[in-house]
Amino acid sequence: MYKVVGRIGGVLLIGLLVWLIINDHIINQEEVEIDLENRMNPDFNEEVAPNFTLNTINGDNITLDDLRGQAVLVNFWASWCQPCLNEMPAIQSIYNTYGDSGLEVLAVNIGESRNTVEDFRTQFPELEFHLLLEDDIVADQYMIINLPTTYFINPDGTIEAHYRGELSEEQLAVLVEEILPEG
């Protein structure tokens, strides 16, 4: 008798735990929180994004000021950085979703050689946004202290937000929607 009651109690307890986990997951999916305050670099106070010109791995030059009129996501990353690698598919998905709405994505590699970035591109051929080679000056201009760090730049060239750490696709979508050109 006690074994039957114990098993029923165990099954009920497991069912309750599963329900709580599923319910918590559903609730957390409904509200995408972005803790910008704790992820902002307090020393960075530029209103207008510092301009830069960097080389792509294809040998082209990209100048940030030439992208005025578009929303720009600038992601600082490295191939050895696991959180950077984790968010690359999410960034590509966001680019796929919002690229036709005026979003440009610039992925600025920090401290790695052209060969390393080219090897990375070979491993991830699905990435369609620009992979840029850093010259150490841009990382200093943007006060990059950890990777990944992502800046969200309005079409007028002002910085809407920046975030230190890995972002989910949902978080990226919320921040990108804030910077898309109107109309």
Intertermini distance: 70 Å
**Helix content estimate:** 40-55%
Q: Order of strands side by side in the largest beta sheet?
A: 2-1-5-4-3-6-7
Q: How many alpha or pi helices? A: 6
Overall mean confidence score, pLDDT: 84
In total, how many beta strands?
7
What general outline do the C-alpha atoms trace?
globular
The major pleated sheet works out as:
7 strands, mixed
Structural class: alpha/beta
Radius of gyration: 21 Å
Quick synopsis:
This protein is an alpha/beta fold and 183 residues long. Helices cover 40% and strands 20% of the residues.
Structure description:
Residues 24-32 have low confidence and may be disordered. 40% of the residues lie in helices and 20% in strands. The protein is globular, with a radius of gyration of 21 Å. It has helices at 2-30, 36-39, 82-98, 114-123, 137-141, 169-177; strands at 53-56, 61-63, 71-77, 103-109, 130-133, 149-153, 159-164. It is built from 6 helices and 7 strands, in the order ααβββαβαβαββα. Helix 3 (82-98) crosses helix 6. The protein has a 7-stranded mixed beta sheet, covered by helices on one side. It starts with a helix and ends in a 6-residue tail after the last helix. With 183 residues, the protein is of the alpha/beta class.
